[in-house]
Design brief:
mainly alpha; Helix Hairpins; three-stranded antiparallel β-sheet; 8 helices; about 10% strand; binds manganese (III) ion
Length: about 200
């Protein structure tokens, strides 16, 4: 049983003008497809074959670059597509909103912390909102396709929101203006999905 590229739950142009259709086409159809195929090739015939991606990442040999890069890339993009929506934006509700207030002081303070992590991640990588057991939230950045599920990476806990700050995620539309892309990302965050992940992981 190998990993499959998940279908997008919305059209390539559905996140415009925040994320353009051509970027979505290439990002999903080429980049994510590449990580998926390379992950399958890297684990075929090894003891990792048949394990869940979460299990593979949690027990990852960090020296196994093929699985680290492509397993991370596979997982990160699966999450990324799901935590965005054409009907996204606004702010979280309920228990997640309360946890954000408890952990950061306010939603605005969380936005500042998360945006800052995304804008200041040097080179390619991701910024994450993670939940620890008990419901405490943390923000961190990771390089390349690493993520906080991996041993000793980032803030630990379970990622429930992430933004891809590789140039392939924004360069066609925003060129070098990463801060503008980060600002626009807040318009497409699917807070219902983030809340679902929070409830499952906390
Ligand atoms: Mn990407």
């Amino acid at each position: 049983m190998s990993f499959e590229l998940p279908s997008l739950q919305y059209a390539h142009n559905a996140l415009e003008p925040n994320i353009d259709a051509r970027t979505m086409e290439i990002h999903h159809g080429k980049h994510h497809a590449g990580y998926t195929n390379n992950l399958n090739a890297a684990i075929e015939g090894t003891p990792l074959s048949g394990k869940s991606i979460e299990d593979i990442l949690a027990h990852l040999d960090m020296n196994n670059k093929a699985v680290r890069n492509n397993g991370g890339g596979f997982y990160n993009h699966c999450l990324f597509w799901e935590i965005m929506s054409p009907n996204g934006g606004g702010s979280p509700k309920g228990a997640l909103a309360q946890a954000i207030n408890d952990s950061f002081g306010s939603f605005e303070a969380f936005m500042d912390t998360f945006s800052n992590a995304a804008k200041t991640q040097f080179g390619s990588g991701w910024a994450w909102l993670c939940v620890h057991k008990g419901g405490k939230l943390d923000v961190c950045g990771t390089a390349n396709q690493d993520n906080p599920l991996m041993p000793g990476i980032g803030c630990g806990g379970t990622p429930i929101l992430g933004i891809d700050v590789w140039e392939h995620a924004y360069y066609l539309h925003y060129q070098n203006r990463r801060p503008d892309y980060v600002t626009a990302f807040f318009n497409v965050i699917n807070w219902d999905e983030v809340a679902r992940r929070f409830e499952t992981a906390k």
